[in-house]
Amino acid sequence: MSQSPRDDHSDEPKKYSLSDVKLAISPFEDRLLKRLPSKEEILQRAKKRQHKKKISYAALAWFIAFGGGLYWLDPAYQTQQWQTQVGESQQIQLLDRSTVHLNSHSKITVNYHLFSKRIQLEQGEAIFNVDHSNWKRLEFFERRFIVNSGMLQVEDIGTVFNVRRYTADHNRVGVLQGSVKVRLLTDSNQQDLILKENDFYENKHNQLYRLNQIKLNTETAWQQGYVVFDHTPLKQAIAAFKPYQKFEVSYSHPDTQNILISGRFQLHNYDAFMQILPQLIDVKTVQKAKHDWLIIQSGK
């Protein structure tokens, strides 16, 4: 049985010329041209796209400028104030769950800003325990926690710290846990000073001084109702009772004020301290009136 010869080119695709393509689409050319945009329409659409981009960029720039302005201005939206009387203390919880332990005869004003919490210690002493997020990634979004005491400014880094105000230009800060940044408001060129745990500093006459031999238990004893002295001059020891009770003390001789005293005493019972004082140091105490005492040093 005979077979026809095989055509080696039967499976190859057919090639079309450009004229064949034009001929094939010529019946649809008018319809296609109607659907295609004109040159003027193409230019108009391009202008609209450029205009939308400009609006988007302008809106982004305005948003950045507005946000930067808000951050710089940091406006306050709420204020709270607390004050303790002579002989009382108060534990305060702020809106962010941070706590403030206010000592006797003390006063603070808390201003809540959009990006910070700013506390003014107007008188007395307070311990600040700042609450932080457990999520490290959220710490960047936490508001700054700043305490101003006269000319001294303390900013929390992750901290429990104590601030005591004597006068506008005499303040003390001590770090109980963590660290803080400290600066003097009178010197804008001064670099921030980083204080670590157990660091104590005092500012006097626009200068910062490091305090040595300060112990934590002496700084926080007032929270338990005690005062602790460790080779403390008598005048300074007497002054430690003054924020809790009103009384007067005079001395038979100026040198008596410099006698060193150590021990742990109840803050709210200065009478007992005055009565036991002759057993601790070589002095005699005389009660001239109900709240008036005289301390006489032997041989003076």
Question: What this model shows, in words?
Answer:
With 300 residues, the protein is α+β, with helices and mostly antiparallel strands. It has three domains: 40-73; 76-216, Jelly Rolls, CATH 2.60.120.1440; 225-297, Phage tail protein beta-alpha-beta fold (3-Layer(bab) Sandwich). It contains six helices and 18 strands. Strands 1, 2, 3, 4, 5, 6, 7, 8, 9, 10, 11, 12 and 13 form a 13-stranded mixed beta sheet that branches. A hairpin with a 2-residue loop joins β12 (200-204) and β13. The model has no long low-confidence stretch (mean pLDDT 84).
Task: Identify the notable features of this structure and list them briefly.
300 residues; alpha+beta; Jelly Rolls; Phage tail protein beta-alpha-beta fold; 3 domains; 13-stranded mixed sheet; three-stranded mixed sheet; rod-shaped
